[in-house]
Amino acid sequence: MGFGGGEEKAEEETPKDPAAAAGMTREEYEEYQKQLVEEKMERDADFLHKKAERATLRVCLREKYRLPKSEQDENMIQMAGDDVDVPEELLKMVDEDATEEEEKDSILGQMQNLQNMDMDQLKEKASATLTEMKSKAEEKCSVM
């Protein structure tokens, strides 16, 4: 009475060709697959370039702060090619940090820091440290 007969027809109706399954002709499907591969390659190239830009920035920061070099960063830059530059926005941020540090390291920067300090608090802290050192010295030395 038709038990099991419908299952065989369902298998025959599903096309084995992926182009037909997607509702396209063979040529359209091949063009679509080609386009997908090209887009993926473009995304991968952009991603690699971004990673190389970040690696370049890390190399610059390592040089600035005299940190050890990273072979991983250097390899990333070489893989992307030597035409990798650090994005302008990141360079601006690094330059702003550098000018702030130069201001802090200058004598005028140190003077401004002294003006911002609370002298009473500084005196209290110094006297507390001195009395603490005296009491520890008295505990350890029987002559005092």
TrEMBL record:
GO molecular function: syntaxin binding
Entry GO terms, CC: SNARE complex; terminal bouton
Residue ranges of the region described as Disordered: 1-31, 125-144
Subcellular location(s) per record: Synapse
Predominant location: other
Keyword field: Exocytosis, Neurotransmitter transport, Synapse, Transport
Bias type Basic and acidic residues, positions: 1-16, 133-144
Top-rank lineage group of the source organism: Eukaryota
GO BP of this protein: regulation of neurotransmitter secretion; synaptic vesicle exocytosis
PANTHER family with a match to the protein in the record: COMPLEXIN (PTHR16705), COMPLEXIN-4 (PTHR16705:SF7)
Family designation: Belongs to the complexin/synaphin family.
Protein name (record): Complexin 4
Species the sequence originates in: Cirrhinus molitorella (mud carp)
